[in-house]
Amino acid sequence: MSDRHLVLKDFKRLALAGALLYLGACAGPSGTAPIDDRTRGGQRAAPAQPVPASGMHTVQRGETLYQIAFRYGTDWRTLAANNGLTQPFTIYPGQQIAVGAPRTPAARPAVAAQSPSPGAATTAPRPAPAAPARPTPAPSAAALPPGATSSRPATPAPTAQVPARVAGWNWPADGPLIARFGSLNKGIDIAGQLGQPVRAAADGAVVYAGRGLIGYGEMLIIKHDETYLSAYAHNSRLLVNEGDKVRAGQTVAEMGSSGTDRVKLHFEIRRRGQPVDPMTYLPKR
User: Fold this and answer.
1) Which of 71, 92, 154, 266 is buried most deeply by CB count within 10 Å?
2) What's the pLDDT tens digit per position in 33-52?
3) Whole-number Å distance between alpha carbons of 134 and 131
4) Would you say residue 102 has pLDDT above 90?
5) How far apart are CA 63 and CA 95, in angstroms?
6) What is the C-alpha to C-alpha distance for residues 205 and 200, in angstroms, rounded to an integer?
Protein backbone atom coordinates (compact mmCIF):
# COMPACT_ATOMS: atom_id res chain seq x y z
CA MET A 1 0.00 0.00 0.00
CA SER A 2 1.36 3.42 -0.97
CA ASP A 3 2.18 6.15 1.52
CA ARG A 4 -0.65 8.24 0.10
CA HIS A 5 -3.24 5.55 0.88
CA LEU A 6 -1.89 5.18 4.43
CA VAL A 7 -2.17 8.93 5.04
CA LEU A 8 -5.79 9.01 3.76
CA LYS A 9 -6.70 6.01 5.94
CA ASP A 10 -5.25 7.66 9.07
CA PHE A 11 -7.07 10.92 8.26
CA LYS A 12 -10.43 9.11 8.02
CA ARG A 13 -9.82 7.44 11.40
CA LEU A 14 -9.04 10.80 13.05
CA ALA A 15 -12.15 12.40 11.53
CA LEU A 16 -14.36 9.56 12.82
CA ALA A 17 -12.88 9.80 16.33
CA GLY A 18 -13.43 13.56 16.37
CA ALA A 19 -17.08 13.18 15.37
CA LEU A 20 -17.67 10.62 18.14
CA LEU A 21 -16.07 12.91 20.72
CA TYR A 22 -18.27 15.82 19.58
CA LEU A 23 -21.45 13.74 19.87
CA GLY A 24 -20.44 12.59 23.33
CA ALA A 25 -19.86 16.16 24.48
CA CYS A 26 -23.36 17.12 23.30
CA ALA A 27 -24.95 14.46 25.48
CA GLY A 28 -25.95 15.01 29.08
CA PRO A 29 -24.03 13.70 32.10
CA SER A 30 -25.51 10.21 31.72
CA GLY A 31 -25.03 10.09 27.95
CA THR A 32 -28.57 11.26 27.18
CA ALA A 33 -29.76 14.53 25.74
CA PRO A 34 -29.75 17.48 28.19
CA ILE A 35 -32.97 18.01 30.16
CA ASP A 36 -33.34 21.65 29.20
CA ASP A 37 -33.78 21.23 25.45
CA ARG A 38 -35.19 24.51 24.12
CA THR A 39 -35.85 22.99 20.67
CA ARG A 40 -38.37 20.61 22.30
CA GLY A 41 -40.41 23.37 23.82
CA GLY A 42 -38.35 24.52 26.77
CA GLN A 43 -39.92 27.97 26.90
CA ARG A 44 -40.14 28.95 30.56
CA ALA A 45 -42.78 30.85 32.46
CA ALA A 46 -42.10 34.54 32.93
CA PRO A 47 -40.02 35.42 36.03
CA ALA A 48 -41.33 37.64 38.80
CA GLN A 49 -42.09 41.11 37.50
CA PRO A 50 -40.11 44.09 38.79
CA VAL A 51 -41.83 46.38 41.25
CA PRO A 52 -43.24 49.50 39.49
CA ALA A 53 -41.26 52.70 39.91
CA SER A 54 -44.02 54.08 42.13
CA GLY A 55 -43.94 51.00 44.35
CA MET A 56 -47.69 50.63 43.76
CA HIS A 57 -49.80 48.12 41.83
CA THR A 58 -53.22 48.98 40.43
CA VAL A 59 -55.64 46.14 41.07
CA GLN A 60 -57.27 44.74 37.93
CA ARG A 61 -60.65 43.01 37.82
CA GLY A 62 -60.35 39.37 38.93
CA GLU A 63 -56.98 39.73 40.70
CA THR A 64 -56.49 38.39 44.22
CA LEU A 65 -53.96 39.29 46.87
CA TYR A 66 -52.25 35.93 46.38
CA GLN A 67 -51.94 36.46 42.63
CA ILE A 68 -50.43 39.93 43.10
CA ALA A 69 -47.94 38.57 45.64
CA PHE A 70 -47.04 35.76 43.20
CA ARG A 71 -46.56 38.28 40.38
CA TYR A 72 -43.93 40.24 42.31
CA GLY A 73 -42.33 37.29 44.09
CA THR A 74 -43.28 38.42 47.59
CA ASP A 75 -45.18 36.95 50.53
CA TRP A 76 -48.94 37.54 50.62
CA ARG A 77 -48.78 38.23 54.36
CA THR A 78 -46.30 41.05 53.73
CA LEU A 79 -48.67 42.66 51.21
CA ALA A 80 -51.59 42.32 53.62
CA ALA A 81 -49.66 43.88 56.53
CA ASN A 82 -48.21 46.71 54.43
CA ASN A 83 -51.64 47.66 53.10
CA GLY A 84 -53.64 47.23 56.29
CA LEU A 85 -55.66 44.32 54.88
CA THR A 86 -57.30 41.75 57.13
CA GLN A 87 -59.34 38.63 56.50
CA PRO A 88 -60.85 38.05 53.98
CA PHE A 89 -58.33 40.38 52.23
CA THR A 90 -60.91 41.95 49.92
CA ILE A 91 -59.45 44.17 47.20
CA TYR A 92 -61.13 46.31 44.52
CA PRO A 93 -60.45 47.06 40.85
CA GLY A 94 -58.58 50.36 40.66
CA GLN A 95 -57.27 50.08 44.22
CA GLN A 96 -53.61 50.96 44.74
CA ILE A 97 -51.64 48.22 46.52
CA ALA A 98 -48.15 48.96 47.87
CA VAL A 99 -45.91 46.18 46.55
CA GLY A 100 -42.53 47.69 47.33
CA ALA A 101 -40.63 50.82 48.23
CA PRO A 102 -40.89 53.50 45.51
CA ARG A 103 -37.72 54.22 43.61
CA THR A 104 -36.51 57.64 44.74
CA PRO A 105 -33.54 59.60 43.37
CA ALA A 106 -30.38 59.54 45.44
CA ALA A 107 -30.39 62.12 48.21
CA ARG A 108 -28.33 65.20 47.56
CA PRO A 109 -25.32 65.66 49.84
CA ALA A 110 -26.01 68.02 52.70
CA VAL A 111 -24.46 71.47 52.39
CA ALA A 112 -21.95 72.06 55.16
CA ALA A 113 -23.03 74.82 57.51
CA GLN A 114 -20.79 77.90 57.43
CA SER A 115 -19.02 78.58 60.71
CA PRO A 116 -19.67 82.10 62.09
CA SER A 117 -16.96 84.70 61.74
CA PRO A 118 -14.92 85.47 64.88
CA GLY A 119 -16.66 87.94 67.18
CA ALA A 120 -20.04 87.59 65.44
CA ALA A 121 -23.03 87.20 67.70
CA THR A 122 -24.58 83.77 67.68
CA THR A 123 -28.24 84.01 68.47
CA ALA A 124 -30.36 80.87 68.55
CA PRO A 125 -33.16 80.82 65.96
CA ARG A 126 -36.63 81.30 67.31
CA PRO A 127 -38.75 78.16 67.21
CA ALA A 128 -41.53 78.24 64.66
CA PRO A 129 -45.02 78.51 66.12
CA ALA A 130 -46.65 75.09 66.45
CA ALA A 131 -49.33 74.36 63.87
CA PRO A 132 -52.78 73.78 65.31
CA ALA A 133 -53.53 70.09 65.67
CA ARG A 134 -55.87 68.70 63.04
CA PRO A 135 -58.57 66.27 64.08
CA THR A 136 -57.86 62.71 63.01
CA PRO A 137 -60.53 61.50 60.57
CA ALA A 138 -62.38 58.42 61.71
CA PRO A 139 -62.11 55.41 59.40
CA SER A 140 -65.15 54.64 57.30
CA ALA A 141 -67.29 51.70 58.33
CA ALA A 142 -66.73 49.86 55.07
CA ALA A 143 -62.94 50.57 55.05
CA LEU A 144 -63.04 51.11 51.29
CA PRO A 145 -60.00 52.40 49.39
CA PRO A 146 -60.11 55.92 47.90
CA GLY A 147 -62.46 56.09 44.94
CA ALA A 148 -64.15 52.77 45.69
CA THR A 149 -67.80 52.36 46.58
CA SER A 150 -69.68 49.49 48.17
CA SER A 151 -71.31 48.66 44.83
CA ARG A 152 -67.94 48.20 43.12
CA PRO A 153 -67.09 44.56 42.29
CA ALA A 154 -64.60 43.30 44.87
CA THR A 155 -62.15 40.40 44.82
CA PRO A 156 -62.18 38.69 48.21
CA ALA A 157 -59.53 36.09 48.90
CA PRO A 158 -60.80 32.50 49.27
CA THR A 159 -61.62 31.63 52.87
CA ALA A 160 -61.41 27.82 52.75
CA GLN A 161 -59.52 26.37 55.69
CA VAL A 162 -56.00 25.08 55.05
CA PRO A 163 -53.91 22.65 57.10
CA ALA A 164 -51.69 24.00 59.88
CA ARG A 165 -48.70 22.57 58.02
CA VAL A 166 -47.95 20.58 54.88
CA ALA A 167 -48.11 16.87 55.69
CA GLY A 168 -46.21 15.81 52.56
CA TRP A 169 -45.71 16.46 48.86
CA ASN A 170 -46.69 14.41 45.81
CA TRP A 171 -45.80 14.68 42.15
CA PRO A 172 -48.39 16.85 40.35
CA ALA A 173 -48.25 14.92 37.07
CA ASP A 174 -46.75 11.87 35.39
CA GLY A 175 -44.20 12.36 32.65
CA PRO A 176 -40.54 13.09 31.92
CA LEU A 177 -38.85 16.07 33.54
CA ILE A 178 -37.81 18.47 30.76
CA ALA A 179 -36.65 21.53 32.74
CA ARG A 180 -35.24 21.90 36.25
CA PHE A 181 -35.29 24.72 38.79
CA GLY A 182 -32.67 27.39 38.14
CA SER A 183 -31.92 31.08 37.87
CA LEU A 184 -34.21 31.43 34.84
CA ASN A 185 -36.79 28.82 35.80
CA LYS A 186 -38.72 29.25 39.05
CA GLY A 187 -39.96 25.67 39.08
CA ILE A 188 -39.85 22.45 37.05
CA ASP A 189 -41.47 21.46 33.76
CA ILE A 190 -43.08 18.04 33.21
CA ALA A 191 -43.97 16.88 29.68
CA GLY A 192 -47.21 15.04 28.99
CA GLN A 193 -50.25 14.64 26.76
CA LEU A 194 -53.08 17.08 26.13
CA GLY A 195 -55.80 16.56 28.73
CA GLN A 196 -53.58 14.51 31.06
CA PRO A 197 -54.53 14.85 34.76
CA VAL A 198 -52.80 17.52 36.84
CA ARG A 199 -52.98 16.73 40.55
CA ALA A 200 -52.73 18.80 43.73
CA ALA A 201 -49.29 18.24 45.24
CA ALA A 202 -50.63 18.53 48.82
CA ASP A 203 -53.78 19.34 50.78
CA GLY A 204 -54.86 22.97 50.59
CA ALA A 205 -57.26 25.54 49.16
CA VAL A 206 -57.36 27.15 45.72
CA VAL A 207 -56.51 30.85 46.07
CA TYR A 208 -56.24 31.70 42.36
CA ALA A 209 -57.68 30.21 39.16
CA GLY A 210 -57.29 32.03 35.85
CA ARG A 211 -54.87 33.34 33.26
CA GLY A 212 -54.03 36.79 34.56
CA LEU A 213 -50.25 36.24 34.71
CA ILE A 214 -48.35 36.60 31.44
CA GLY A 215 -46.35 33.51 30.54
CA TYR A 216 -48.30 31.09 32.75
CA GLY A 217 -51.48 30.53 30.71
CA GLU A 218 -54.34 28.86 32.57
CA MET A 219 -52.96 28.61 36.10
CA LEU A 220 -53.91 27.49 39.59
CA ILE A 221 -52.36 28.62 42.85
CA ILE A 222 -53.00 26.43 45.90
CA LYS A 223 -52.33 27.59 49.44
CA HIS A 224 -51.18 24.68 51.60
CA ASP A 225 -50.55 26.41 54.93
CA GLU A 226 -49.31 29.78 56.21
CA THR A 227 -45.90 29.19 54.59
CA TYR A 228 -46.30 27.29 51.31
CA LEU A 229 -48.07 27.87 47.98
CA SER A 230 -47.86 25.78 44.82
CA ALA A 231 -48.59 26.83 41.23
CA TYR A 232 -49.71 24.78 38.20
CA ALA A 233 -49.37 26.52 34.82
CA HIS A 234 -50.12 26.00 31.09
CA ASN A 235 -53.28 23.93 31.70
CA SER A 236 -55.89 23.36 29.00
CA ARG A 237 -58.75 23.28 31.53
CA LEU A 238 -59.16 24.13 35.21
CA LEU A 239 -61.37 21.76 37.21
CA VAL A 240 -61.56 23.68 40.51
CA ASN A 241 -62.49 27.22 41.49
CA GLU A 242 -61.09 29.80 43.88
CA GLY A 243 -62.05 28.89 47.44
CA ASP A 244 -62.31 25.14 46.75
CA LYS A 245 -60.64 22.86 49.28
CA VAL A 246 -58.50 20.18 47.60
CA ARG A 247 -56.80 17.01 48.73
CA ALA A 248 -53.36 15.70 47.81
CA GLY A 249 -53.59 13.70 44.58
CA GLN A 250 -56.93 15.24 43.54
CA THR A 251 -57.17 16.07 39.84
CA VAL A 252 -57.42 19.86 39.69
CA ALA A 253 -56.70 20.58 36.01
CA GLU A 254 -55.93 19.07 32.62
CA MET A 255 -52.49 19.49 31.08
CA GLY A 256 -52.20 21.78 28.08
CA SER A 257 -50.05 24.33 26.28
CA SER A 258 -51.69 27.64 27.22
CA GLY A 259 -49.09 30.40 27.45
CA THR A 260 -46.32 28.21 26.03
CA ASP A 261 -45.29 26.29 22.91
CA ARG A 262 -45.81 22.65 23.90
CA VAL A 263 -47.98 20.50 26.14
CA LYS A 264 -46.44 20.46 29.63
CA LEU A 265 -47.01 21.35 33.27
CA HIS A 266 -44.97 24.13 34.83
CA PHE A 267 -44.96 23.49 38.59
CA GLU A 268 -43.69 25.79 41.34
CA ILE A 269 -43.45 25.68 45.11
CA ARG A 270 -43.11 29.00 46.93
CA ARG A 271 -42.02 29.34 50.55
CA ARG A 272 -43.03 32.69 52.06
CA GLY A 273 -43.40 34.03 48.53
CA GLN A 274 -39.98 32.93 47.30
CA PRO A 275 -39.55 30.14 44.70
CA VAL A 276 -37.80 27.02 45.99
CA ASP A 277 -36.59 23.92 44.15
CA PRO A 278 -39.53 21.47 44.01
CA MET A 279 -37.10 18.55 43.67
CA THR A 280 -36.03 19.03 47.30
CA TYR A 281 -39.66 18.50 48.40
CA LEU A 282 -41.04 15.91 45.97
CA PRO A 283 -40.39 12.18 46.60
CA LYS A 284 -37.79 10.49 44.44
CA ARG A 285 -39.15 8.48 41.57
Assistant:
1) 266
2) 333 333 334 445 555 677 88
3) 9
4) no
5) 11
6) 10
